[in-house]
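Structure in, sequence out. Go:
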């Protein structure tokens, strides 16, 4: 069979460099710069897993801000 199909995912506003580095390394993604802004590039499964990770990280950060606790 051929290579697995690759997809693109826009990076939502407010994502920190730390979170970006985590998902790129953990989910074997590529960061590409386009005229419309940066995107993540990889397999559908890896992008979906990265999206879940990003949402969890943002929710955790919101909880920290609400309680006044930071890392």
């Amino acid at each position: 069979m051929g290579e697995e199909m690759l997809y693109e995912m826009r990076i939502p506003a407010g994502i920190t460099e730390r979170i970006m580095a985590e998902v790129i390394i953990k989910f074997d993604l590529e960061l590409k710069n386009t005229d419309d802004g940066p995107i993540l590039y990889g397999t559908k499964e890896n992008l979906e897993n990265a999206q879940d990770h990003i949402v969890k990280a943002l929710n955790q950060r919101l909880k920290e801000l609400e309680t006044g606790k930071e890392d």
